[in-house]
């Protein structure tokens, strides 16, 4: 049930992003209908079909989908850009550690660490503590939510990695970081051009009258 709910929320977030030009009541109503349709039992429900082709999504995907839905419906960022950037950096960092080694780049098996390994959980808690000390609260919330859901066995998997990340989430986080970098670079260039324009329009000091110097 939780897996279907997460999938439904992700689908609703994607729909609200793609239908940004439609009136808010229409987008909101269709998003609710999409969530209801997704939660219907298989084979009627959409979530079952999506998960059968794309696999199950993580707890982190559900949390970010809720933040995206709130932003699209209310017009305000529930999750500040800096916090979202920290979450994406953390997710990409975990993926760079997990996926290459899981695909055979090393003899070590990081997936085995997700089966209740105390050291792995302690490292994640240290990462969360470091994020909290640096006021990056969103990564800390993601880590706590994933480990809490893993403790209560809310998803189909019994591995902590599947609660933290999934391939589609990593693709999205990577794309968001690339887009964020391009936006920041564009804003810096625009600020520099504006500063140069203002400097060029600044009045020049009047020339000194002849004979003013001895």
Count of helix runs: 9
Shape: globular
The beta-strand count equals: 0
Please give the alpha-carbon distance between the first and last residues. Answer: 91 Å
**Largest pleated sheet:** none
Number of domains: 2
Protein architecture, described:
The chain folds into two domains: 1-57, no CATH class; 79-197, no CATH class. 72% of the residues lie in helices and 0% in strands. The protein has nine helices and no strands. The chain is globular. The N and C termini lie far apart (91 Å).
Write the layout of secondary structure elements.
Blueprint: H1 2-18, H2 24-39, H3 46-54, H4 59-74, H5 81-105, H6 118-133, H7 137-151, H8 160-164, H9 167-201
Helix pairs in contact: 1-2, 1-3, 1-4, 5-7, 5-9, 6-7
Short description:
This protein is an all-alpha fold. It contains 9 helices and no strands. The chain folds into 2 domains: 1-57, no CATH class; 79-197, no CATH class.
């Amino acid at each position: 049930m939780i897996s279907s709910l997460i999938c439904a929320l992700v689908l609703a977030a994607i729909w609200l992003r793609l239908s940004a030009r439609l009136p808010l009541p229409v987008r909101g109503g269709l998003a609710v209908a999409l969530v209801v349709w997704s939660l219907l039992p298989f084979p009627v429900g959409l979530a079952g079909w999506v998960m059968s082709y794309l696999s199950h999504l993580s707890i982190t995907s559900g949390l970010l989908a809720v933040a995206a839905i709130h932003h699209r419906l209310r017009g305000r960022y529930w999750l500040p850009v800096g916090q979202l950037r920290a979450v994406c950096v953390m997710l990409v960092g975990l993926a760079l550690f997990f996926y290459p080694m899981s695909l055979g780049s090393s003899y070590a098996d990081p997936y085995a660490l997700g089966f209740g390994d105390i050291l792995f959980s302690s490292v994640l808690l240290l990462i969360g503590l470091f994020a909290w000390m640096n006021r990056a609260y969103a990564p800390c919330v993601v880590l706590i939510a994933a480990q809490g859901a893993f403790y209560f066995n809310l998803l189909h998997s019994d591995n902590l990695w599947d609660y933290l990340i999934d391939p589609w989430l990593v693709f999205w986080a990577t794309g968001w970081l690339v887009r964020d970098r391009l936006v920041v670079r564009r804003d810096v260039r625009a600020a520099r051009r504006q500063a140069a324009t203002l400097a060029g329009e600044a009045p020049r000091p009047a020339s000194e009258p002849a004979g003013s110097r001895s």
